[in-house]
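Title: Comparing notes on inverse folding

I've been comparing how different people in this forum approach sequence design from structure. To keep things fair, I'm posting one structure and asking everyone to reply with a full sequence. Here's the target:
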């Protein structure tokens, strides 16, 4: 009986870790697509892109923070590198890469 209980706890931790990292991966793909697509419509209210960065990269780390907090030691630096890479790539896909956007991510983390 105790062995089943311990196995269930271990499986749940493993499932939580897989879910956290899987959701983070899915969110990073979505963020990459949305931030690297060329912008065809005029921009909205000035400053709203900063709010979008804040929400996007906070959402990127949320699954790990909730389901597997130990992974934040890896997820946070990787998300910062990911955001910096996006800003470097954006000029090559018809978008503007801005240091201000990257510094916004530093503020979030």
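Reply #1:
Here's my take.
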């Amino acid at each position: 009986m105790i062995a089943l209980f311990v196995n269930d706890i271990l499986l749940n931790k493993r499932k939580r870790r897989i879910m956290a990292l899987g959701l983070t991966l899915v969110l990073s793909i979505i963020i990459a697509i949305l931030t690297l697509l060329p912008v065809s419509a005029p921009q909205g209210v000035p400053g709203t892109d900063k709010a979008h960065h804040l929400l996007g990269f906070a959402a990127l780390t949320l699954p790990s923070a909730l389901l597997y907090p130990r992974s934040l030691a890896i997820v946070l630096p990787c998300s910062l590198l990911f955001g910096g890479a996006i800003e470097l790539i954006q000029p090559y896909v018809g978008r503007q890469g801005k240091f201000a956007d990257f510094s916004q991510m530093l503020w979030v983390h």
